[in-house]
Design goal:
alpha/beta; ten-stranded mixed beta sheet; two-stranded antiparallel sheet; 17 helices; elongated
Length: 519
């Protein structure tokens, strides 16, 4: 039975306390939109930290979006069990750090999945993704990205909706067929570059990326819901399969962040965030990313806090995050870092230098020595000033630790408010259908242009055939008839050859070249 919830807390309890640790650590909701960092080596407790933060934001009435790389976070939907061996030590830990009122409870969860298998389908359109992110997703060169920008410009100018992959593929075919004319206006349009883009689109399609593009597109309002008790919805993106295509994973999350930035109104510094966004495996966003994309992420991270959105990057090492972005992450939970090489030691030293020093201990040594479930933390305090670094024992989660079963997931999806809304894909008229219709009309007009010539020739031939018998004998008629057939056949061959050759191609090309005359 789900317990009653009363949202009263203005702070989120992180952990701490006890003789071996510093003062209790709290994340102030008012500064939760100032972004944050959860870092640490594999197996040091990052996932549990993410879980307890998601629980706390939900209880505070703040919706959450996070990606579930290993499937463990699905346990947020069910209550923890004190009899379970993984949960048995939690009560003792809660008492050790002074976490009074600790109970087990489930949380409101909505499951999402780009492939529509472990959650409700998530889609966007090619137009909404835009050329910059799509170029990053396809790993295009500068020349190929230029052609993609031409495609988007043409689509905008002529009202051609780019909704799914086949729309973009059809438009690229048209661009290739009209490359000479387009090159005069936009610069060189290379058939080789178009072919390279088409091959990348084919690879994306084979990876299942085609399921990302289409309609109905995801409505951001569906990520910002609360349940009837006032708890924020925890939106979990199933990412275990998605991680096999890391470019797709990173591009999708960045698109979602960009959409939030574009669509949400300015709210300044609210008492609590409107949404908290966790970006797990954040290094995938920046690995090999062009400077233009990194600049875009920096801009979004800097300005989206005024929209009431907090962004928390989850990664193994703070060095994975560019300095300009790392400097904006005020709330930090640093789990253990291991220093096995000279490079590791240098990165550990640099990570320690980003904290406000605590005279009670050496930060660098603390980061190296903290155990599983422990961390070095620093939270923003009054007026947004970084707090002194503390050694912290992270509070235990209230929901189930570990994944739920497939049957439990399906039952939760069936009861979800989103059930049925996104399950069936729509395929309305878009660029593919419009271009196909115009090409069909062009072919019919070309055929109509050809028929009058053939009709006139056939009429002249019938007239000659009727007049000849009145002037000649039967033998002469036969001779003239033979000559007439030869003469007529020669004319027919010339006419048909001309229509199929340069003149015919000119007629068809002229019509196809005018595909963009009307919307």
């Amino acid at each position: 039975m789900i317990r009653e919830y009363v949202i009263v807390s203005s702070d989120i309890f992180i952990g701490g306390g006890g003789p071996d640790y510093g003062a209790p650590q709290f994340l102030t909701l008012k500064y939760a939109n100032r972004h944050g960092l959860i870092a640490g080596a594999t197996g040091t407790g990052k996932t549990v930290t993410l879980q307890i933060l998601a629980e706390s934001f939900s209880n505070a009435g703040v919706p959450v979006f996070l990606s579930d790389i290993k499937g463990d976070l699905s346990g947020l939907a069910l209550s923890g069990d004190p009899a379970h061996k993984l949960h048995a030590p939690f009560t003792e830990r809660a008492g050790k750090i002074g976490f009074t009122g600790y109970t087990y409870q489930p949380f409101p969860v909505t499951f999402w999945d780009l492939f529509g298998q472990q959650g409700h389908p998530v889609r966007t359109t090619i137009s909404e993704m835009g050329p910059l992110l799509l170029s990053q997703l396809l790993a295009l060169s500068e020349a190929q990205e230029g052609i993609l920008n031409i495609a988007f410009r043409l689509a905008d100018e002529d009202g051609l909706p780019l909704l799914d992959l086949k729309d973009l593929q059809a438009l690229l075919v048209w661009i290739g067929q009209n490359a000479r004319e387009l090159s005069l206006r936009y610069g060189n349009v290379s058939a080789a570059s178009i072919g390279a883009i088409q091959r990348r689109l084919l690879v994306l399609e084979n990876q299942g990326g085609a399921k990302l593009f289409g309609e109905p597109a995801l409505a951001l309002a569906d990520l910002m819901r609360c349940d009837p008790d006032g708890r924020g919805m925890i939106n979990i993106l199933a990412s275990d399969r998605l991680m096999r295509a890391p470019k797709l994973y990173a591009t999708f999350l960045l698109w979602l962040l960009s959409e939030l930035f574009e669509e949400l109104p300015e709210v300044g510094d609210p008492d609590k965030p409107r949404l908290v966004f966790f970006f797990d495996e954040a290094h995938l966003l920046f690995d090999g990313a062009p400077k233009a994309l990194v600049d875009k992420v920096e801009q979004v991270a800097r300005l989206i806090r005024s929209k009431g959105v907090g962004v928390y990057f989850v990664t193994q090492n703070p060095a994975d995050i560019p300095d300009d972005i790392l400097g904006q992450l005020g709330n930090r939970v640093q789990h253990a870092l291991r220093a096995f090489t000279a490079k590791d030691r240098k990165e550990l030293r640099m990570a320690a230098q980003t904290y406000r020093e605590n005279p009670a201990f050496n930060t660098e040594e603390a980061i190296r020595e903290v155990g599983v479930g422990e961390a070095v933390t620093s939270m923003l305090q009054k007026k947004g000033v970084p707090g002194i670094v503390e050694r912290t024992l992270i509070r235990p989660p209230s929901s189930q630790l570990g994944p739920i079963t497939d049957a439990e997931r399906k039952a939760l999806m069936a009861r979800s408010d989103m059930a049925g809304k996104y399950d069936t894909a729509l395929d309305r008229e878009s660029a593919f259908e419009i271009l196909r219709t115009r090409a069909t009309e062009a072919a019919e007009e070309a055929e109509a242009a050809e028929n009058p010539s053939l009709r006139e020739f056939k009429n002249a031939r019938r007239y000659a055939g009727k007049a000849a018998p009145a002037q000649t004998t039967s033998r002469r008629t036969n001779k003239i008839s033979v000559n007439d057939e030869s003469f007529g056949g020669a004319i027919a061959e010339v006419v048909i050859k001309e229509l199929k050759g340069t003149t015919g191609r000119r007629i068809v090309r002229g019509i196809l070249g005018g595909l963009f005359r009307g919307r």
